[in-house]
């Protein structure tokens, strides 16, 4: 139904845009006939008919014309017969006495309400349009088929040899028409060409002169050769789809006139004036004998005195007219853009007022389903249907717990993508849970379970949490329509971060927010499976717009890469489980905690802010595209969000650059000739940092050097790391550990690098080291044995960092690597 409504709206927009072009072409009819050939107008009408049948168009941010449309709340209320007493309602066994009477009264009201159905006005309009289009098209096809059947029923094959000879001659001259059958009618009808799939040229009863027959055959075979019947079918389809627009019907009438004129032009191409005069006389004579009866999907000679006069003028006019290629291109561009600057569904009402009107309707709708008891299935179901969800999230089911307090409502949802769950503001869950706790008077707990392809979320919100947030009993906020409107406006203005602050005149951070230790304990309650895993705290992070504590799990005996990500909001409401295959993990792994140092953020935190700002900007830009496609009323508000995201990203990048210190390159000093050669060689391919201003420090561990036939072979495992200076700390931001063979030749008193071989990855790792070390197996064995041990490499790195800090005087007092901090002394 939504697709039908969308097609109807697009059709209205295209029809309105095309009306302007049709009026323009009809007004300029005399001018175009005088300047351009009839075939030019034929092409323009054809393009316009095709455009009218395509219910899509590009949508600019702003539209010049806005067509009024009914609001989604407008509709017609009807009574559905046979629904009396079928309302779904259940009364818990624990309810008795006066409470049971209240339940029964509520049940009666629900049953009465179940009889009523409101059909939205835009749905009625869309169905009416579709029914009209289908009716018009069926009428056109049906009447044409019936007309053809009636004519051919009283017709027979032409038997006159002279007529058949002339027909064959004209058919050969036309270069086509072999599929056309020549028949003679027994009733007044014709001459005409009829039949899309099995074309028939029908002659009326009576005799015609040879010249008249030649004109008839040439004219109708020209229609056939140009497929003009299919052209008329296209016009009929355009009229059917736009049956409500009289200008489209006028367009079809004008196009049919121009079709006959262009057919005459084609039939008389390169004809001399004498033949033109004979052709005109024949047309006049035939028109007097021809009948007016014809169907939409047929051609004929009679078109009225005015049209006949125009045809004769065209036939006798030998003036050469322009092809109008440039003008045709302009007309095609205007045709393609039909409807692009017309919007359906808006009014002159400002966006703010429209939002308030929608909010008022929602407040009224929610109050109509307000209930005292959570066991009221019908009211709860309609309440969930009224609450808004992020686009792409679908409700799968609900469950009511009414056996013991706290009475709870559990709702399950499915999200189409991981990004939808992890990047969409969690404010929707807080808002909906708060509204449910306000509208269901005895509800004490609301739980949402959301499943996505590679992640999931559990959201639990209690009445106690809502009272701490709102600083009042939320049930008092849905007592009347005015209170409900204010409450809705307030909830809709909040972000996920706002729900971790007390909502009062002195808004401050809530005192019930979790510490890191409490968060880890709470996680064990949510997901006991992680007890068998090693948890690694990743500090604070922002997920779905909420401030969360992040953790990763590592299975014993496995790679140190995280197996699973977990996050819990600081108020304990939202718990996320994210598998390592989820795309969002790449962003989470890019940095750990947004650590604060004094009043300034660390470079690590700033890098995380840049990553988050980039993701926020990408999401805002994607949402802006969606808003433009759907012509949402808050399009310009979304534009502002994009600008704000761009400013936040620029600010974070600017602050990072201002805090980032450019470091001098590292140069190792040694008197050992082999060691000096190795460091000089490493400087050729392990010295450029990925980020300008950082420094790369190498710490090779040499396992042997051998001079053979004038070539020095050195076997070493190179530990290299890129560092940035953050205050007084050198932070490692990347690095590698690679076993290799370096080959040198003598160059005076020093060694010059002539080649290197590095270890291969995966299952070839050990064999590749043994191959490039051969025949020195001891060096390969030692290299393999110590590859996984960090002590030797860490010792060399510490030594080289101390040397670097001493040489450059950068003032670093420690360095951070592998999750540990080391003093520089």
For this entry, give a set of tags:
825 residues; alpha+beta; 6-stranded mixed beta sheet; 26 helices; flat
Characterization of this structure:
The chain has 825 residues and is an alpha+beta fold. The chain contains 26 helices and 24 strands. The strands form six sheets. Strands 9-10-11-12-16-15-14-13 form an eight-stranded mixed sheet, sandwiched between helices.
Count, helices: 26
Strand content: 15-25%
Mean of residue pLDDT values: 79
Structural class: alpha+beta
Rg over C-alpha atoms, rounded to the nearest angstrom: 41 Å
Gross morphology: flat
- The stretches of 5 or more residues where confidence is low (pLDDT under 50) are 79-95, 346-353, 528-532, 556-561, 590-600
N-end to C-end Cα span? 74 Å
What level of helicity do the residues show? Answer: 40-55%
What's the total number of strands?
24
How many strands, what sense, and barrel or not for the largest sheet?
8 strands, mixed
Strand order of the largest sheet: 9-10-11-12-16-15-14-13
């Amino acid at each position: 139904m939504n697709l039908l409504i969308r097609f109807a709206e697009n059709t209205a927009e295209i029809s309105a845009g095309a009306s302007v072009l049709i009026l323009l072409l009809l007004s300029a009819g005399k001018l175009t006939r005088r300047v351009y050939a009839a075939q030019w107008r034929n092409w323009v009408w054809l393009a316009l008919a095709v455009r009218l049948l395509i219910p899509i168009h590009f949508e600019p941010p702003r539209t010049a014309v806005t067509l009024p449309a009914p609001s989604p709340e407008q509709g017609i209320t009807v009574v559905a017969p046979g629904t009396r007493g079928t309302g779904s309602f259940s009364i818990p066994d624990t309810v008795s006495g006066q409470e049971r009477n209240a339940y029964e009264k509520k049940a009666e009201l629900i049953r009465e309400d179940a009889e009523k159905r409101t059909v939205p006005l835009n749905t009625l309009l869309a169905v009416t349009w579709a029914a009209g289009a289908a009716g018009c098209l069926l009428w056109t096809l049906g009447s044409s088929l019936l007309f053809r059947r009636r004519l051919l029923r009283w017709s027979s094959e032409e038997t006159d040899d002279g007529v058949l000879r002339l027909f064959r001659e004209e058919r050969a001259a036309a270069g086509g028409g072999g599929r056309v059958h020549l028949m003679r009618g027994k009733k007044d009808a014709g001459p005409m060409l009829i039949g899309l799939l099995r074309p028939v040229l029908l002659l009326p009863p009576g005799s015609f002169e040879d010249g008249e027959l030649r004109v008839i055959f040439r004219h109708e075979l020209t229609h056939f050769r140009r497929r003009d019947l299919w052209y008329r079918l296209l016009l009929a389809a355009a009229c059917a789809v736009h049956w409500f627009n009289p200008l489209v019907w006028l367009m079809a009438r004008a196009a049919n006139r121009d079709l006959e004129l262009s057919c005459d032009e084609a039939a008389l191409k390169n004809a001399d004036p004498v033949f033109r005069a004979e052709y005109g006389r024949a047309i006049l004579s035939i028109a007097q004998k021809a009948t007016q009866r014809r169907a939409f999907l047929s051609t004929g000679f009679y078109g009225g005195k005015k049209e006949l006069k125009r045809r004769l003028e065209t036939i006798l006019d030998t003036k050469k007219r322009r092809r109008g290629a440039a003008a045709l291109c302009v007309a095609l561009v205007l045709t393609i853009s039909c409807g692009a600057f017309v919007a359906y569904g808006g009014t002159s009402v400002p966006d703010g007022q429209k939002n308030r009107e929608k909010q008022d309707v929602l407040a009224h709708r929610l109050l109509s389903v307000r209930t005292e008891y959570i066991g009221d299935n019908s009211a709860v179901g309609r309440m969930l249907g009224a609450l808004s969800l992020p686009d792409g999230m679908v409700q799968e089911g609900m469950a009511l717990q009414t056996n013991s307090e706290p009475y709870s409502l559990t709702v399950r949802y499915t999200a189409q993508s991981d990004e939808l769950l992890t990047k969409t503001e969690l404010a929707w869950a807080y808002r909906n849970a708060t509204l449910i706790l306000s509208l269901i008077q005895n509800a004490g707990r609301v739980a949402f379970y959301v499943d996505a392809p590679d992640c999931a979320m559990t959201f639990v919100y209690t009445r106690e949490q809502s009272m701490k947030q709102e600083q009042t009993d939320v049930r008092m906020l849905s007592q009347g329509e005015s209170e409900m409107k204010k409450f809705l406006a307030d909830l809709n203005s909040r972000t996920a971060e706002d729900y971790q602050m007390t909502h009062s005149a002195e808004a401050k951070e809530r005192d019930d927010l979790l510490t890191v230790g409490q968060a880890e304990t709470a996680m064990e309650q949510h997901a006991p499976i992680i007890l068998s895993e090693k948890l690694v705290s990743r500090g604070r992070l922002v997920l779905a717009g909420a401030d969360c504590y992040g953790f990763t799990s590592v299975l014993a005996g496995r790679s140190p890469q995280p197996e699973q990500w977990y996050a819990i909001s600081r108020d304990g409401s939202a718990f996320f489980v994210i598998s390592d295959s989820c795309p969002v993990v790449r962003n989470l792994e890019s940095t750990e905690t947004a650590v604060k140092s004094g009043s300034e953020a660390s470079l690590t935190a700033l890098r995380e802010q840049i990553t988050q700002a980039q993701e926020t900007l990408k999401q805002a830009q994607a949402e802006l595209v969606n808003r433009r496609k759907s012509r949402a009323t808050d399009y310009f508000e979304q534009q502002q969000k994009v600008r704000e995201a761009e400013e936040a990203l620029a600010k974070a990048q600017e602050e990072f650059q201002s805090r980032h210190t450019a470091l001098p390159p590292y140069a190792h000093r040694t008197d050992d000739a082999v060691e000096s050669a190795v460091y000089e060689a490493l400087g050729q391919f392990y010295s450029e940092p990925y980020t300008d201003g950082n420094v790369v420090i190498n710490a090779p561990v040499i396992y042997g050097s051998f001079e053979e036939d004038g070539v020095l072979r050195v076997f070493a495992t190179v530990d290299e790391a890129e560092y940035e200076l953050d205050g007084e700390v050198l932070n490692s931001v990347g690095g590698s550990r690679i076993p290799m063979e370096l080959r040198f030749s003598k160059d005076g008193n020093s060694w010059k690098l002539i080649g290197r071989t590095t270890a291969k990855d995966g299952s070839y790792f050990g064999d590749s080291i043994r191959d490039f070390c051969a025949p020195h197996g001891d060096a390969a064995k030692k290299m393999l044995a110590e590859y996984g041990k960090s002590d030797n490499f860490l010792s060399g790195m510490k030594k080289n960092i101390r040397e670097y800090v001493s040489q450059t005087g950068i003032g670093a007092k420690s360095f951070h690597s592998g999750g540990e901090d080391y003093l520089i002394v």
